[in-house]
Structure formats: structure tokens, C-alpha cells
């Protein structure tokens, strides 16, 4: 099969804060900024991966979501209970310092993992988990 990842979705409760974080702190490109029926979607991606995008959407944005479903999604987002994404980087420590200085909530300082990566973790302004990993032969077995 010829399959490739094209888009993944993260719920955000404040698109302006998300825009600042993903564009200005992480350095992702804004590919779309769309308003529709009182909602807003941002699409961002790495300049190094022009065919992969992260869609930042309102909690419970599905047209089939009931008001109760949307409220539940908003509460789960506020608790940081929704899934996130994992990025790779050439320098985990430098990225960690830049994101920490921007005021993001630190979940894990950079550390060598026994499975061969050095990684750190943050929450974005909406509470989504973001991990940043650096592959290195030096981290194996650390």
C-alpha cells in the first residue's frame, strides 16, 4: 500500500494563542486560517514537511457533535486529557529552552530515554501534550 500521513487534528480553545505558539514559538508555517459558521481552523506545518499538516480546530468541531459532546470535549481539553503529537528535532535541549522561555508548561525536562532518544514534553496553550525527541546513538541505554 502507498500510504502517507497528511493531516492530524488538535483541539484548541484559543486560536490566537495557538497561532502565536505554533508559528512564533515552534516556527511552523501557517498554511490556512479559516473561519466558518462561527468556528475557526488553523492549519500549520513544518517547512521541512510540506505535505504534513496539523489542523488546530475547536473542541468538538464535528458537525455531528451535540452541545453536550462539545462541552465534554472542552472540559477534557481543559484538563489536558486529549492526545497530542510528537515532533523530532536536531537539538532537544535548545528547543526545550526556547519553548520554556516562551512560557509553555513544562511536563518533562530533556532526558535520555532507554529506547534511544533524548526527549522533553510540554503542554501547548490549550493543554495538548507535545513531545519533542532527538534521535541519537548516544542516548541508547542512557
From TrEMBL:
It comes from the Bacteria. Pfam families: Glyoxalase (PF00903). InterPro entries: Glyas_Bleomycin-R_OHBP_Dase, Glyas_Fos-R_dOase_dom, VOC_core. CDD domains: VOC_like. Residues 4-135 form the VOC domain. This is VOC family protein. It comes from Streptomyces galilaeus.
Amino acid at each position: 500500500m502507498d500510504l502517507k500521513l497528511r493531516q492530524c487534528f488538535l483541539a484548541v480553545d484559543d486560536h490566537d494563542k495557538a497561532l502565536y505558539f505554533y508559528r512564533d514559538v515552534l516556527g511552523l508555517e501557517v498554511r490556512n486560517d479559516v473561519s466558518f459558521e462561527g468556528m475557526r481552523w488553523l492549519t500549520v506545518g513544518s517547512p521541512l514537511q510540506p505535505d504534513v499538516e496539523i489542523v488546530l480546530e475547536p473542541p468538538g468541531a464535528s458537525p455531528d457533535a451535540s452541545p453536550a459532546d462539545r462541552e465534554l470535549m472542552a472540559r477534557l481539553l481543559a484538563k489536558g486529557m486529549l492526545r497530542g503529537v510528537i515532533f523530532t528535532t536536531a537539538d532537544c535541549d535548545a528547543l526545550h529552552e526556547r519553548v520554556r522561555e516562551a512560557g509553555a508548561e513544562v511536563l518533562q525536562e530533556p532526558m535520555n530515554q532507554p529506547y534511544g532518544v533524548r526527549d522533553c514534553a510540554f503542554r501547548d496553550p490549550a493543554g495538548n501534550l507535545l513531545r519533542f525527541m532527538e534521535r541519537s546513538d548516544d542516548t541508547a541505554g542512557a
